[in-house]
Amino acid sequence: MERVAIIGASMTQFGQREGEWVLDLLAEAGLECLEDSGVDAAEVDHLYVSNMASGEFEGQTGIPNALAHDLNAMPAYTQRVDQTSSSGGAGIYAAWQSVASGASDMTLLVGGEKMTHKTTGEATDVIASLTHPAEYKTGVTLPSFAGLTARHYLERFDAPRESLGKVAVKNHENGLDNPNAQFRKEVDLETVLESPIVADPLRLYDFCPITDGSAALMLCPESVAEEYADEYAVITGIDGATDTHVVHEREDPTVMGGVVESGKGAYEMSGRNPEDIDVAELHDMFTILEFLQMEGLGFAEQGEAWKLVEEGYTERDGELPINTSGGLKSKGHPLGASGVAQGVEIYEQLVGEAGPRQVEADVGLTCNVGGFGNCVITTIMEAAQ
Amino acid sequence: MERVAIIGASMTQFGQREGEWVLDLLAEAGLECLEDSGVDAAEVDHLYVSNMASGEFEGQTGIPNALAHDLNAMPAYTQRVDQTSSSGGAGIYAAWQSVASGASDMTLLVGGEKMTHKTTGEATDVIASLTHPAEYKTGVTLPSFAGLTARHYLERFDAPRESLGKVAVKNHENGLDNPNAQFRKEVDLETVLESPIVADPLRLYDFCPITDGSAALMLCPESVAEEYADEYAVITGIDGATDTHVVHEREDPTVMGGVVESGKGAYEMSGRNPEDIDVAELHDMFTILEFLQMEGLGFAEQGEAWKLVEEGYTERDGELPINTSGGLKSKGHPLGASGVAQGVEIYEQLVGEAGPRQVEADVGLTCNVGGFGNCVITTIMEAAQ
């Protein structure tokens, strides 16, 4: 089967986009991606919109149809992809399938979310509705799961609290060089460790913010990629997998089954293994998640990711740079956009467009986590040879 | 490329399902579809959930993850497909792509919506949010578009008001033989024509009801279909297309561009033409839509569908039976389920499981309309040879 190429990418400024709505953000990223890839709107066959909750956040649904109109992409087929906080990764999977199946010769994927007009409490309520009713109706939210898991991890593996803080410090440092990041702000370990407690032992700086933003990718069959781009990337492996929806039913709270299974699928499909990965974007919605994904994806043994972080292994000049974009932590986390933005960063790293964040990379990986690992999509991308 | 087969189908009772929620309905249809197809939950690779608005209707999101859990289908990949009122058709397209791309060897598609716990006004508000903000913020809803279009059609093509009423009469008559239909109730023309005006010239009986319900299909590569079923159907053509999101920007209000374009794509892919179609399920959310789809899909010339209806051409014993299931009109319209339920009816007709509704059919078609034709998915299915 022919491989699927990525020939263009874009993202808007992430942060608080006052007075702009999700459709404005989607249109901005979509137009920029058309320009970046040299594709005319009329050439777009399929348009996928990754978005979790425009209805709940804005009272506006049908946004893919509205976006097709705004981009003047009619009669392109369009559809919304929702996989909660992994809607962006699910969008990459849907877009990949549309091209790989032959349904589309040119697919534009745009992910976005508008959230900051809501209070943190209101936004958390919308996000919490993705958990099992038995959980959220009793008040359990994703941050509380993160706190429980972090406590368990630190005690069981004798890991210092500081190691989690270093994830935040590293990702903020990377974000300094990302003009689109929500927080371009250096943060030292002391600041993280002394920030207000949110869900013990996790503190404010262990959490990603509430964010508005959008990101986009253009996908097509590899056979036509060269018509549009000298440098492009190819998706060589992609898979998604669920874990129990009820978090407390999992055998080991430090093992995210969805990460393990989707990673296994993506490695198998690409013929790659963890050692081949040169750069990765992981879903650091909470600092503890970066450890769990490093372990689930085979970058570290169980209970040992924290050591690699302590050693600087995952820093920009380390063996395996993780979250060179700044991650969700510093870049921000507009739900539907985040997985797409992970893809944007890896694409830019692979085609040499990452500017001051550039690392040497031929093979990159993204891992996008829905809920508390309820569904995970892992993608392996490679620079075209 | 290998063809994609449908090896099983199910639908729940449509209607008012008091005390049950969307997840209950999805699980019921999902379990029944597993049983009908002889597939074990552990064999399911991908699970798609067609649903427009569980967040808005119930405050519950992440339902695909919850359903994977409830069906014990982990680690199957799962995702929600939203294309407003055509979410079901979009689900068939997504499920088809998942198999055709090789991503999945066994895909379960379940569509569903829970709506009747809301007042008609509340439900209409949610549905209206799919239109362009410039439209719904000024109070234009889908029924009002239908009224305007019907008035235009009747006057321009000199069609009698009765012809629209006959669509309702026919579909109610078909629904009498569908045990899962919301309204199993014979309706005569007089009743339709004397029912309360909703959007002049359309009256209550020109509209589909608010409905709870779910429907499911099982898809796999044709090469393995025979392991599961003696009789199965094959999707030979499928395409989706948008029209302007702003309805008043369309050149001709009686031409639904999305119907025309998606139909063209499905015919081309299957090598079929309108004359080959033996049975069709059209999206009769409003009676006038059945005319517009008949014309857009080439079953009638522009302005002449009403004549075919008058002649009985689309009745169960006519040349081209349309909406043998009872259509949205009598069967009901749980948004995310409707497009899937159209596929269920055509599948049952093709494999000879339609019971008292059975017609002779080797080739069937479904047309699922999102919004007021904002995005349309047309599918052609054939009995396996």
UniProtKB/TrEMBL annotation, chains A, B:
A GO MF annotation of the entry reads: acyltransferase activity, transferring groups other than amino-acyl groups
Per the UniProt record, the lineage of the source organism begins with: Archaea, Methanobacteriati, Methanobacteriota, Stenosarchaea group, Halobacteria
The protein, known as: Acetyl-CoA C-acetyltransferase
Q: Which InterPro entries would you find in this protein's record?
A: Thiolase, Thiolase-like, Thiolase_C_2, Thiolase_N
Which ranges carry the Thiolase C-terminal domain?
Answer: 241-382
Q: Which SUPFAM superfamilies match?
A: Thiolase-like
Q: Does the keyword Transferase belong to this entry?
A: yes
CDD domains to which the protein is assigned, alphabetical: SCP-x_thiolase
Q: Domain named Thiolase N-terminal: which ranges?
A: 4-223
Keywords (A to Z) from UniProt: Isoprene biosynthesis, Transferase
Which Gene3D superfamilies does this chain map to?
3.40.47.10
Q: Name one Pfam family in it.
A: Thiolase_N
Q: Name one GO biological process term.
A: isoprenoid biosynthetic process
